[in-house]
Write the structure tokens for this entry.
Amino acid sequence: MKSIFNTINAAEITERMDQLSENYIPKWGTMQVSQMLAHCSAFHDIPLGNAFPPRGLLGRLIGRFAKPMFYNDKPLPHNMSTIPTIIIDDQRQFMAEKEKLKQQINIFQQGASEKFSRHPHPFFGKLTAEQWGKGIYKHLDHHLKQFGV
């Protein structure tokens, strides 16, 4: 399984992001490409320690049982529910969002991966650094495929 903490995997994600343009239409869902980039950045703010969405009751009850879907090698389902605080429904500037996301990927490359495991996922709960790395890669891959790259 690929991980955002792996330099080769991070470079592959960045190269795929460079293929995007602001006119790309999603294969599923309603987000514009700039909103998708902002959504991914907002998601990364959780393991980076910049956002702390609360754990909901459903996550507390079943999150640990569903946790493997975040970091296993099965694709994420289309149109699955997301963390309410990272739903992006306003207009965003494509290049600014793309650069912000690239900067976050660089942060994941520069830091010790273990420091990112301290921040729990709001649905799945506590994750190891390895699980975060795989899940972050999987989430980015899911959304890049959403836009055909």
